[in-house]
Amino acid sequence: MSLKDLAVVTGGAGFIGSHMVDLLLDEGFRVHVVDDFSGGHRNNLAHHGGNTDLEVFDQDIRSLPSGSPIFSGARYVFHFAGIGDIVPSIERPLDYMDINVQGTVRVLECARHAGVEKFVYASSSSCYGLAATPTREDHPINPQYPYALSKYQGEQAVFHWRQVYGLPANAVCIFNAYGPRVRTTGAYGAVFGVFFKQKLAGKPFTVVGDGTQSRDFIYVTDVARAFLAAARTPLSGERFNVGAGNPRTVNELVDLLGGPVVYVPKRPGEPDCTFADISRIRAALGWEPQVDFRQGVQRMMQHIDHWKDAPLWDPDSIAEATKSWFSCLGADRQGGRQ
């Protein structure tokens, strides 16, 4: 039996989770990955083939028994498993509440029964809603769609387990993560997957609105380092924002990628700017983002062929895919936002 510390990563075959696995193995941990591969991909872990410190369990988090041996002896649990995207959450809210909330409770129970040293939850900046910027951790919560609500309720469960059961836990509130292995298939969503496929196909970039909206893009390896720092700190019961603290416009991204543009309608419920106030994580954990935006985009461009099988979106297919978005979140809905 290895004397190395064990860490469990749920959703460890996904985008951010697989980079968490990379970091943990580099730091000398044994790692158990729990993933049902409904969103993650085995090839995200393929470069670790033959590494005896990594064990992968093909399992839905909702079926985990409280005393699951996967968690036995674990020092840390990093919880990334769940489902994302705005449009599917509007169309299938029950799935989001089931997986992102009840699934989180299952993982919490596993961590509690295993007596882990720290549980770190992947929260989302979408919980803040249409937030004032820069956004601090004490900003009011105002989810605009079921995905955001499910992530916040998952976070509430995490801190409730800390309060009631004494489970040491922190939440890391991720802003706009990007980098290698960002999702390439499925619902219309992440801008990088959309734009990279369009560039490969020689098609115009579909820019929402006028492209002046800005996002606090944070490179995925910086996100993984933040999670490890949130596990290693003696602090518990904290939410830490993780972003670059330096929003960049979609037009800047287009300029870096290079190519023609076509504009599609601005969508309700989306902020004009996401901007993380990262002063808390800097002061408490000594964490700093290391990869700047230009460098991060260039790294991704070196592997642009990764997106060759991604869906190719155009204005018509985007309009069809976002019908429910406009229907449910439109500002003219009774009882809706102003």
UniProtKB/TrEMBL annotation:
Residues 8-243 form the NAD-dependent epimerase/dehydratase domain. Pathway: Bacterial outer membrane biogenesis; LPS O-antigen biosynthesis. InterPro entries: Epimerase_deHydtase (IPR001509), NAD(P)-bd_dom_sf (IPR036291). Pfam families: Epimerase. Gene3D superfamilies: NAD(P)-binding Rossmann-like Domain, UDP-galactose 4-epimerase, domain 1. PANTHER family: DTDP-D-GLUCOSE 4,6-DEHYDRATASE-RELATED. Belongs to the NAD(P)-dependent epimerase/dehydratase family. This is NAD-dependent epimerase/dehydratase family protein.
